[in-house]
Sequence to fold (235 residues):
Amino acid sequence: MNGARLSRKVHKWLSLAVGLQLLIWAASGFYMVAVRIDIIHGDMLVSNMATPVAVADADGATVAGLLQRYPDATGITLDSLAGEAVYRLDTPAGQRLVNAGNGESLPPLDEASALSVARYHYADSGEVTSVEYINRNPPSEIGALPLPVWRVNFDDRWGTSFYILPDSGRFATRRHTLWRIFDFLWMLHIMDYEERENVNNRLLQGVSVAALMFAASGTWLLLYSFRRPRRERPA
Fold:
């Protein structure tokens, strides 16, 4: 079997093996460059993420007083909880909220408080459709976000969901339809069908090598077609 016939046969069988994945790479790559990354991140859905807290709003409790009251604290941050000044304390058991006015510890957010935080940060015009407290079997879209977490769903055109951490009161992340499509296409693109994070897995490596061989065999056939002498037609 000459080189051209061998390349043609290799090219044919490789096209059956990697053709679908090549199409997936092209389609998913197009989506990733066609939709702006700030839209994928849902930046247009969120507001009040960098609202400054006036020192006057937090003069009821001093850092020295907080360290005396909470000696296990390893870090203290003045922050905002739905527009209200609070301290967030880092402790070995996790973050805890403290009232910035009197230094009293605040309980984890209940449903009403989580809803208030979500509405405070929501920048669109949708209405809340449901509020869920998730403490097990989390959806894959939140990744390694610690549990428990509040999920607040909106009925806007984006299919928006906000995730709020009850212990720290932090707005953790947001998810919406375009992000979910991106996440699904990313899974197909990197061929990690479980964690959706490993861009160096064996399956992706193997298919990439096969795709390279597919391109090489096709290039050889193209060059061979140009080099092949033309047959003269009989008179």
In short: The chain is about 40% helix and 20% strand. The chain has a mean pLDDT of 86. Residues 3-37+182-227 form one domain.
